[in-house]
Amino acid sequence: MLDYDREAERYDASRGGEPRAAAAAGAVLGLIPPGARSLLDVACGTGIVTRRLAAARPALRVTGVDLTPAMARRAAARLPGAVVLGDSRRLPFRDGEFDAVTSVWLLHLAERAEDVRRIVGECARVLRPGGVYVTTVDKAAAHNVGSDIDAVLSSRPPRPARDDAAAVEAYAAGHGLSPAGQARFRGHGQGRSPRRTIADLRRGWFVTLPPGDPLSDRFAARLAALPDQDRPRADPVFTLRAFVKAPGK
Fold it and tell me: Helix, strand, or coil here: 63?
């Protein structure tokens, strides 16, 4: 697992920067009702997407929350007074406080299925009846673009997809949330090259291939043998799912 305190400084640049953030924010906003007046961005990271959500709708009061201090500090610089430290499994907000809640690129990081269930439950708890929850699903699958890099990585030890769309929908239903739409957006600047994938491997990007493990070294050698070491392959395309909270829940 990556150390996100250490990742904070290079996080935006290594993940597509502003173009990717613009694509994500636009897709999220397409699923948020125009009448929403308050939005909580759970695991807001550096706030690069959160800031765009706020800028696009001046009437929308946007709050960010993140567990990692270094990430939260960067987000707070972008949204002064609107970012707090907090665990997505125990959100520091009142029941029904927000018209909309988002969690972009969060659920796939959960260690256990129970953690995903708790996160979805907390997002539902702080959402008002009739409000909308928007989250990314199937993130790992989005990165498989059918490239030669994917062919090499296909034989690595598997890890359960904690953000599997069907599982997330089931957790949502258990907390009074019903499907309310979906959207897709391109992860601009996130197409992998072999050399970049090796660097990610060395710093712990792939959970089942820890740095220094002999198996990691074997995968790095196979990646180093691929042609066009610095040519990015296709960008991933991410999926968002929206859910509406039932009245009276």
Answer: strand
- Residue 21 Cα distances to 182, 190, 194, 224, angstroms: 18, 12, 24, 30
Q: Please list the residues that pair with 84 across neighbouring strands.
A: 65
CB distance 32 to 104 below 8 Å? no
Is the model's pTM score more than 0.90? yes
- Residues 178, 244 contacting (CB under 8 angstroms): yes
Task: List pLDDT tens digits, range 104-118.
Answer: 999 999 999 999 999
Bridge partners, residue 87, by sequence? 90
Take residue 192 and report the two structure tokens written for it. Answer: 């992998």
Contact 7, 69 (CB under 8 A): no
Q: Where are the domains of the chain?
A: 4-143+159-191+235-245
H/E run at residue 100 = strand 98-103
Give the class (CATH, top level) of 4-143+159-191+235-245.
alpha beta
Residue among 126, 134, 157, 122 at smallest CA distance from 33: 134
Q: What is the DSSP letter of 36?
A: -
What is the tens place of the pLDDT at every residue in 13-67?
A: 767 779 999 999 999 999 999 999 999 999 999 999 999 999 999 999 999 999 9
